[in-house]
Amino acid sequence: MAKAARLNDPIGHSPSMNWLVKGLLIGGAIAVAGVAIAGTGGLAAAAIVGGAAAGGAGIGELMSTMSWAPKEIAGAIVGAGSGNVYINGRPAVRAHLDKVACDKHSGTPPIATGSSKVFINGLPAARVGDKTGCGGDITEGSGNVFIGGGTLQTDVIHPEDLVPGWVHATLFVVGAAAAVVLAGPVVATLGLVGGLAGGAGGGWFGGRVWGEGSDGQKWAMLGGSLISGALGTKGGVWFNRNYEITSFGVGSNLGNINITSRSTPLKTTPLQPFYVGEEIPGNPKAWTSGRGPVRYLSGIDREACRLHVKDGKLYDNAGNPFDTSDAKTWDGQPKAIYIMDKEGKLFASMEQKPFDFHHSSLDIIGNHLS
């Protein structure tokens, strides 16, 4: 049973703005500390701090609406109260007929819920925890009179709407901009869409399972948003890895945006075991067919063999297109031997000359290893 409500008992609202600011400050402070430790600077640092602050603000606001969050006193029950039923010498109050004055909302909204079992003057008796029409709660009542029964709603309960729309808009813009800076527009967009869809889906599911406005619904909304946002982000990373967007100026029908598949990265095959350590004095040397021990190219030789990739095409060190149309596996003078070093740089030799970072490009009978 809950404490009986009386005339002049206080009402309260969620500390949404207060907790939003605290979440913003905590999120920003954690990000600042992380940026300082990692030594990140410039636009990336600003994006990290801004994104963390926006995220912390959103979580702080959501947590403020949980049932366990303390209410901030925002007004009182103003009347008129029962004319013939008194509790502790003060008029008892009822749903629908009696009103409240709220510092955060205009007008005098009614008490919107009361007991489903106990009635005063034919109306549900109001108790601590019952809702007001502006979304607030009755926060204090009698210390020795308690009223049982379920909850009966008599009037519309409006959302609290304690945070101005421009604050939400600003946080959204800051968070989205931070995501674009840190991850790019594709990852940011898919992560945002995934988060919004997951939050909506989690809210629907939580409302069906635990009830509208329940803590369970809010946790489901947060969890759905985080999980779907993460999946959307992974989808964006996969898209960026496999596709490329080229814009030639955005037209009214987006016809100037072209999406193309990225070329598959070149890979090298594993080294033959007997080449490992051949450069160490005293170890056996690998031989090319009829040509003696392998020779390692100098730095100048390697630079002359350096290839460059541009728009998915290969160019030699002089900037000419690298032609491999007549390449052969073994004819005494193969067209090219491709090698990629550990940094991903691509090289090609027009002769049978191995590179020193790869030990050898040919096995003993002259087959290419990469």
From TrEMBL:
Keywords: Membrane, Transmembrane, Transmembrane helix. InterPro entries: PAAR_motif. The chain crosses the membrane at residues 20-38, 44-63. The keyword Ribosomal protein does not apply. It comes from the Bacteria. This is Rhs family protein.
